[in-house]
Structure formats: structure tokens, C-alpha cells
Design brief:
alpha/beta, Rossmann fold, 3 domains, 6-stranded parallel beta sheet, 5-stranded parallel beta sheet, elongated, binds flavin mononucleotide
Length: 570
Amino acid sequence: MNILVLNGSPRPKGHTKTMVNAFEKGATDAGHTVKVIDVCRKNIKGCLACEYCHTKGNFNCVQKDDMQEVYDALREANLLVLASPIYYHNLSGQLKCVIDRFYATGMKALLPKLKQVAMFLASGDEDIYDGALYSLKGDFEDFLGLENIGVFTVHGEEEVSEEKKQELYEFGRNLKEVTFMNDFIFHNPDKVYFGKNQFTHLAEEVSKYGKKVLMVYGGGSIKKNGLYDQVTKLLTEKGLEIFELAGVEPNPRHTTVDRGAEICKQEGIDVVLAVGGGSTIDCSKGIAAAAKTEDGKVWPLVEGNVWVTDALPIIAILTNAATGSEMDAWAVISNMDVNVKIGIGGDALIPKAAFENPELTYSLPAYQTACGAFDIFNHVLDNYYLAGDATFDMVLEMQEAVMRAVVKWTPVALAEPENYEARANLMWASSMALNTILDAGTVHAPACHAMEHELSAYYDITHGHGLAIVTPRWLKYILDESTAPAIYRLGTHVFGVEAGLDPMDGAKKAIEAVEHFAFDVLGLKKTLTELNINEEHFVDMAKHASMGAFIPGIKNLNQEDIVAIYKMCL
Ligand SMILES: Cc1cc2nc3c(=O)[nH]c(=O)nc-3n(C[C@H](O)[C@H](O)[C@H](O)COP(=O)(O)O)c2cc1C
């Protein structure tokens, strides 16, 4: 694991440093990577409390001093060791300055890899540690949610004893790899009606929520294939009153959402029925949320990063396997005025019910099938790589099973559009990918999705296609000795790459397999250039994608990294 030691003692041969050295040797002997930062040798100022970091700084500190080195190391660390002499009943001032500067980025969500903390303290008197331990408990265990794996102390002016040094050595030597299995709550109340003959339940399900239904759909394909007539007949027979919002665009616009919310408010709509793919369902979710606000507008909710707890009930009839919106708590809305495509989430956005009939995807154009498939694949892959092998093993295997299903069944669906088994596998994979079963115990870190949303926001391209272009480049960019085993595992467990290779060679074969799937099997164009995209907006896009800071993941990506990945896609 990666260990960061912040040594707050100015004395290079003092007791604190002696403890650090013994620990470092033990941990290094055990194969861990240890970075010791002697903070007293650094130019690190105290926090200015200017709030730049929490406003336009997007979690970056305005002061460009040696603290940047600490921030970088902190994002990679799994274990943080705070080592300090006791000065006036507390940690040394130099270390305290560093801790105060955690304010910029020291939040649980921004440090997904950091799991544990330990403390080494040296003092003149015995049992003088209350101040330091108060910070350990309040700031690191409670606020950052870290597991305290040990406190080691020495006191008095005599040299640190051999026993104590041995104790510190053993502590380092016996460290266990951190687990990435976080606590989690699983609650997905969506009732899924899956299969060919489930519409018998539709009217009954919709009528549970009231009489007035807003039916939301896209460009009219549901009128051509008879689905519109079928649904309206079933609802009308049950005595339900139907209102309509047609013409939802791919990458649904906030203005379309607002039009739907206006209908809801004017007509007193009870339930929103989405009939379509991810865009239609996302639009319906936006409508359901905006309809409950005073001004009926969705963008303030999106911009305000509001977790939606109140919305009209949503029911989805799925016609494309792709976004997972039919079973998740998220909607992605686009505002083309400002080139922003961004998610809005909330428990209230999980549909009450989803009707998933694989036959409804038979008539999808091959391009939509291919793009949808890559979207599903990448929803899983984005999560899969957060922690590599150290994650929740059962969940990792389930993620691989879903990706394998996509790789296996998409070519079948492309060759035989009416193959029920293929369509059913893809449809259920879509729902599984984002209904949070595959997130259990992990942190969702959607690297490729964050980068692709910018492409769709600026160029209105099909999301799954953008992902297919970005994903192999991202894998190439993050490939190094530390990531090679995890990438190689994707090859062996999902694409059938042979086992027993050197991890770097295996990882390269895995990336080739992803490219083969995206560009040969799915037949998608390989470059952004072919989609008429050049580098004009890359810097701004990278700024948005990183929220001005970085995208966390198996390799954290800062803005330069993101621009470099976009350039690889040209
Ligand atoms: C400025 C200063 C304040 C100190 N305050 C305390 C104190 O409050 N309680 C205590 O027990 N020792 C105190 N000490 C003693 C140190 O904690 C002790 O010498 C410790 O071993 C120093 O760690 P080091 O060897 O890593 O530098 C203080 C020392 C200094 C220089």
C-alpha cells in the first residue's frame, strides 16, 4: 500500500524521526511504498481561511507553496502517519499548519484511497497526549472516516529504546493491505417488470400514483413501432388521463425539461411516464424534480448540486439498453447555452417501476445498439478500476460478469437484431451496471464518463461513442507498473487474454482487446477527428471534467492529464 508519513519534528535525529525511521524500514521490508515528508524542512504556510478552495478554487489551495507536494501524496496514500513531538500539549506548529491546510482537499469524497491513520508521538512527560489524540479522533477518525490502526509514543529525554524501535519496525512490517470495502446501504425500490408479457401490469402500476399521467417520449419512433398506441390504449382503458411531452432530444436539454415541468404544474400531473431510452428517462426525472420546485426550473437544481428528495413518481418503459437510468438515482441534463452536461441525483429520482421488454430493442439501429453497449461496459469499467484487486472480491467478479455479457452478446445483437437472449442480456446488464449492486463497498469514480460528458456537452455526440473513443486512450494513459496488474485482469477475466504473461504485456493485450471490441466488433469510429472534433476546447473541457481539481480513480487525473488523454483521441 501507499503510506504517507508527515513528520512534524524539526530534529533530524530526534525521537520522532527515530520512530519514523524504524517504521519506514519495517513497512519497506514488507513491500509497501513509504513517502516521508519532513514538514519542518518545507515551506508550508498556515491556512488563510480565504475560502478560495471551497469556491472558485474547486478544492485547490490558493497558496502555491510546498503543500502541493503534500496534497499530491495525500491523494495517493492509503495510510497516513502523523508523527510529531508534543509541543505545549499538542502537535508541533509545523504539522498543525499542514493539517489546517487539509481544509482544501481533506474531505472523505476527495480522498477515496485514504483509509487508515496512525500516530507517532514523542514528548518530555508521560501521558501528555490528549491534545494530539483529540485531533486524531475528531479530524481523522470521525471527519475523514479513517480507521485508526495505532498510536505509538515515547517520552523522556533518553534515546528511544531498542524495544520501541523494534515495536515500530514490526508495526510497519506487519501492516495489512487496506480494504476498499466501505460500509454501504443498499436500497433500490425500483420494481422491475422484465420480459415479453409484462404490460398487463402497466396500467395498474401507473394508476397507483394517480390519474393524470405525463407521457414523455423522443423523436416519434414509438409511434412508428406501435408502442405509443399500445401504451395509450392500456392507460386510457384504465381511465387515466394522458398528457404528452414529445421530442426529447438525445442529451436532453434543460429547456425541454422545463417545458415538461410546466405541463406538470399547469395540469396537476400525478405521475411521469417515460417511454424511451436513457435520454427520455433522464428528461422525465428532471421534469419530476423540477415540477416540485416553486419556479419549475431544473437548472438551479443541477447547478446547486441538490440531492433530490422530492419529485413526482416516475415510471419507465425502456426501449434502449444503455444508460441504466431505468434503475438508478441519476439523470444527466444538458445546457447547450453554457456547454454543460451534468448529472443530477437523488433518491426521489429512482423510478418507482421499470418495464423492460427486450423485444422493444429489436428495431434499434445498429449504431444505437453499439453505443448503448459501450455505455454499459464503461459504467462498470469506471467503477471496476478504483481499487484494482484490493476491492470487494465478490463485487469485482460480478462486475466482470456484466462486462463479459456485454462483450459476448453485443455482436450477437448486431448480427441478429431479433435475438431475444442477446437483447435480454444487454437490457439487464444496463440495469445492473448502475443500480448500485455493483458499487457495493466501493467509491464510484467515473473517469471516462466525466471526460466524455464534456465531449457530448460541447459537440452533442452520442455518449457511448465518445466513451468508446476515450476509454482505450485512458487505459493507455494510466498504464504503468502499478496499474498493469489490474488492467491485465480485465484482459483475462473479461476478454479471454491468456494468463501467465508479464503484467505489462498482459495489460497491453487487454487494451488491444478493448480497442478491438469498440472499433472492430462494434464498428465505431476510432478518433475524435473523425467526429469533426479538434483540440479547440480541450482545456476548458478538462477544467469542467476535473471540477477544477482532479478526477479521482485508480490514477487521479488532473487537468493536464485530461487534456493529454483528449489529444490521444484525435
Ligand atoms: C517548544 C517545545 C514545547 C514542548 N512542549 C512540551 C509539552 O508540552 N509537554 C511535554 O511533555 N514535552 C514538551 N516538549 C518536549 C518535547 O516534546 C520532547 O523533547 C520530544 O522528545 C521532542 O521530540 P523530537 O525528539 O522528535 O524533537 C516541548 C519541546 C519544545 C521544543
